[in-house]
Amino acid sequence: MRHIRFLLITATVGVLLGSCQPKNEADTDLIPVKTNEGGWIFIDSEGEVVIKPVQQIYEASFFYEGRSRVEVADETSQTLSRPLAFINKKGEFINGKKYKYATIFNDGIAWVVEENGFPTAITPTGETLFALKACERVGIFSEGLAPVCFMEDGIRVWGYVDNKGKTAIHPAFVDCSGFSGGLTPAVKDEAVGWGYINPKGEFVIQPQFSGANCFDDNGLAVVGIGDRDQKYGLIDRKGKYVVSPQYDQIKPDGDTYIVKSSGVYGWIDRKGKIIINPQFKDTFYFRKANVTGVSIDDKKWGIIDREGKYVLNPQYDAIGSFIGDIAPFVMSGKVGFIDREGKIVINPQYTDVPSDYMGTVKTYMLNDDRLFVSTDYFDVEAVTTNLLKNSDSGSFRGISGNTTFGQIKESYGDLSYFSSSSRKSSETVDLSNGVSIAQIIFEFPEELSKSSYNYYDNIYETEENTAARVSCVKYRLELDYKAVNKPTNIMQGIADAIVKKYGSDSAIDLANSESTIHTSSMEFNIRKYGSAIWIEVTFK
């Protein structure tokens, strides 16, 4: 019950894309639940099954703009065991495609990323609008703009594109969020702090905050000041404080705000007046309902009204927010649903509900993959092209079976000692796309040096065997954050490039993260070891 366990996660308030929720609320007439059989179905508020997809679903979201993002099985993919897809309210898949990453729909657009693909904007019918090949990360659209991240000189910078894929605000920010009411929090210099920009990218509320959230429907935004001991307050659209920074946490909750003080939660109104004194260890949101689930001890949950009075005394393992007239509750590890008076309307029988249903104020889904995606594109060809530089039919990277120790020393400079018959070079060689040669080990069939004692001069003398010919070279490839999740793709690309370059009848099989390729003059062994890839070239 992954989402139910979110109740136990304490998180820090801050601001990134995940803190500004989509403006379009979920369609709540259909509720996704996980059954004992392990698949997900959609029920109505009376527990009747409305959608039971033909294909088994491992995860499902609420419907946003008529589409639910679902996690499905895929036996055809070697790397995506549970890709993402979209279904409509009939349970039909919208375009037959499966994605590695996907957001929910907002402003009529969702971002999707196919395996080894770029962030691509699609319509609710699954039609492609445009793709952003150069970007690293994108967030959902809001008010016609989407935050996008690019790498410039090794530094991540954020800007915005419009719904045509055109640059609306040039990338210039360390971080930013989604627009709400024509403004969005953004930061150019973390030492200066967060401010708010307009759709032209101009600061209309100057940078000054250590944390900042989007403006809500009340025209207010949560901001923080301080570093280690952050305090939060509320500002209006002119940047003036409506509630001075004094709380450990503030979360918008419809017309009111949940506040945290001295480790417990309560509610204030939009002017800062306390409505319900802080007293609860954890709570869900009222949203549009007049009741919500609370816990006073982090163990048992009950239901309170907007005056803080118990409608149902604490007795269940969890009680979520009310959407419509019902809320999920947990009893003995099973999920059921209760009404606003605490009466059971659907008996506990399900094993999970979506994370967007069971998120408490202590659950801060900073990396909520419903709201943004990262690129999965990896240019293996660029890596292999750089790897095979100075290679010909009888050599690899300028080294062949006829290359001597003396020639290697001349090319690579001083080599550090590895063994009596091998030496290593630790000079880093960038192969692009986060892959680099971090170490090279040269091995020889004979010892490379011989020491003797000079009795005449009373010293030891060492004579190097510079004529020794290399028999094997080992390359250790290091993978940074861009490449660390792509070892199979990289190894496959290297194997394919070697076969294309040298020709081979060897069958490429990376099932055990290792492959051996025989050519007329060399034998290549490619294997994964820890987080690195080793290429061993043995000369015949």
UniProtKB/TrEMBL annotation:
Top-rank lineage group of the source organism: Bacteria
Pfam families: WG_beta_rep
Identification of the protein by name: WG repeat-containing protein
PROSITE patterns: PROKAR_LIPOPROTEIN
